[in-house]
Amino acid sequence: MKKNNAWWYDGIIYQIYPRSFADSNGDGFGDLVGITSRLDYLHELGVDAIWLSPFFPSPDADFGYDVSDYTDVDPRYGSLADFDQLLAAAHEKGIRVILDMVLNHTSDQHAWFMQSRLSRENPQRDWYIWQNPGPGGRVPNNWQASFGGSAWEFDPTSGQYYLHSFLKEQPDLNWRCPAVRQAILDVFRFWLERGVDGFRLDVFNAYFKDSQFRSNPPRFGLRVFDRQQHIHDLNQPEMIDLLQELRKLLDSYPDRYAVGETFITPTEKAMQYVGDDRLHAIFSFDFFESQLSFPWKPRWLMDRTIQRDKLFDKAGVQPTTVLGNHDQIRTASRYCKDGTDHQARIAMALLLTLRGTPYLYYGEEIGMRDIQLSRAEIMDPPGKKYWPVYKGRDGCRSPMQWSSELNAGFSRSKPWLKVHPDYPNRNVAGQQTDPDSMQNFTRKLIALRRAHAALRGDNFRLLPQREKSVIAFERKQDDEQILVYLNFSGASRTVTIETTGANQAAQILLTSGTRQGLNLTDSTISLQAYEVLILKV
Ligand code: GLC
Question: Is the dihedral of CA 128, 133, 134, 137 positive or negative?
Fold first, then answer.
């Protein structure tokens, strides 16, 4: 595919969950000034951009993903002036800032919805999706809310139902209404004018719904929501035209970026949303599989990678690599079953040596684990609803572990969500001084990715191995050949080595093991237990 020189093409993007990152004023809740105070850390880590989960005013039915004002800062996070300072300070360090735009729905406390629900005649009535009851007062169709139950909520004041694809406190906007479209484009303009570098679009492929409100056909699945083919409440053709309009707006400013979170849609289908005249990127959640099973098998991972790259190549767009975010069990909790960080390091090595724009989730660089919560402590609505089958997403949202001080150095007061009890041993400050820590391992990987064009380029070749517990691949650009070996097993493993150059001297760019030098006169190398070995030949 066409190599693109834009910053986002090979930039490393770090996701911050603002309420859990750093608390500057001691109220137990992270804030924007806190983030600004940690920019040096992020700069030294080497990331190119930060993506901030929503910090807009919100009643927090869905922890900020229910916005009641798109052009302000929730006072708990600070003020617009704090945001401007954060943006300026980040830019000074060469760090770009990406905002999380939640535009499929607003909060039910948004002024637009408060107007809309007043009466059927209200001028803003059609800003949301209202329908008359079906026969006998029934819901208008079979659409389901992703967090459980019907997607329709009856509003007795006007005798109609409104649509909510998530919680009933998150009414869906009516994107077919021209005034809504204009109002939202103005929101983008507001932040673009302030200088933000990009946007993450939350569940964007749900914006439009079938204009005839047809019920979804059935299919096999566990929850009622999954027992439908979401052909009428997702992925409507009108989306393309909107993305084109948004892209035009973004392109009227230099170097702006938009990445979409495609909601329950196969990557193949989601590809239609990316391209030179639409989104720059979409997340590929190819490595998540499902909430219930996370296969962590070398062959499976490579099959997935190859499938993923093929799809992105076919569409001519740059892949993204995501191993964790605020909706998923943390990478280390998923893969490190033995209490060590071995598999987390392998995951980090994959994230930073595969093709595609890597997304790091805060704390992933120190191997943070999910916190365990009792039923009474659960805050996340789907967790409350589906406990104990599904415990919700609070686990991966715990405060950043900065130091071994009180509350992990996150806050002077009791944090809004509890800190992981392992913080005295696992924290940024402690890992900074340990050259072999996960954090320093991550830092080295990032530095390698920045230093070697081969690691950022589009070239990826699997080097098949007989050993099932090993992954080996080549990354290449011009004359530079880099070989990556990952040993997933706790025993040493012999791998074959294939170099194209006549020169058999190998430079060890990085090893998580203890080797001193390497002579490639043999055609095999013995990898140490769990070793990550990156060579330049
Ligand atoms: C996205 C967000 C998730 C949120 C949902 C509804 O999937 O990542 O956190 O709950 O959208 O806005």
Answer: positive
Mean pLDDT of the chain: 94
Rounded Cα–Cα distance for residues 368 and 364 (Å): 6
Which of the four pLDDT bands, split at 50, 70 and 90, describes residue 319? very high
Active-site entry in 23, 261, 286, 365: 261
Instruction: Tell me, in angstroms, the distance from the centre of ligand 1 to residue 166's CA.
Output: 8
C-alpha span between 39 and 87 (Å, rounded): 10
Distance 191 CA to ligand 1 centre (A): 21
Distance 203 CA to ligand 1 centre (A): 7
pLDDT mean over 344-364: 97
Confidence grade of residue 520 (pLDDT, cut at 50, 70, 90): confident
Considering the domain boundaries, does residue 310 fall inside one?
yes
203 lines ligand 1 (CB under 6 A): yes
261 is catalytic: yes
The domain boundary residue, chosen from 130, 163, 196: 163
The answer on pLDDT for 257 being more than 70 is yes
Nearest alpha carbon, ligand 1 atom 5: 65
| Cα–Cα distance, 182 to 13 (Å, whole number) | 29
259 within 8 A of 280, measured Cβ to Cβ:
yes
Contact 414, 28 (CB under 8 A): yes
Residue 172, domain member (yes or no)? no
Query: Both tokens of residue 81?
Result: 């002036």
Question: Is pLDDT at 2 greater than 80 in this prediction?
Answer: no
Structural domains counted in the chain: 3
Of 23, 100, 202, 364, the active-site residue reads 202
**Residues 142 and 286 both lie in one domain:** no
* % of residues, the chain, pLDDT over 70: 97
In a shared domain, residues 513 and 381: no
Side-chain-facing half-sphere of 166: CA atoms under 13 Å: 25
- The answer to whether position 168 is within a domain reads no
Residue 299 pLDDT > 60, yes or no? yes
pLDDT tens-digit readout, 230-239: 999 999 999 9
pTM over 0.90: yes
Q: Which of 56, 65, 285 has most ligand 1 atoms within 8 Å of its beta carbon, as the pocket-test mutant?
A: 65
pLDDT one-digit tens code per residue, 13-68: 999 999 999 999 999 999 999 999 999 999 999 999 999 999 999 999 999 999 99
3-state secondary structure of 395: helix
Q: Is there a cis peptide before residue 319, judged by omega within 30 degrees of 0? A: no
Of 260, 291, 267, which Cα lies nearest the Cα of 146? 291
502 pLDDT more than 60: no
Q: What are phi and psi of 484, to 5 degrees?
A: -115, 125
- Condensed to tens digits (0 to 9), the pLDDT of residues 385-412 reads 999 999 999 999 999 999 999 999 999 9
Q: Is 148 in the same domain as 231?
A: no
Which of 446, 473, 493 is where one domain is finished? Answer: 446
| Calpha distance 250→256 (Å, rounded) | 6
Domain extent, residue 438, equals: 10-107+178-446
Nearest atom in ligand 1 to 104's CA: 12
Q: Are 249 and 196 in contact (CB under 8 A)?
A: no
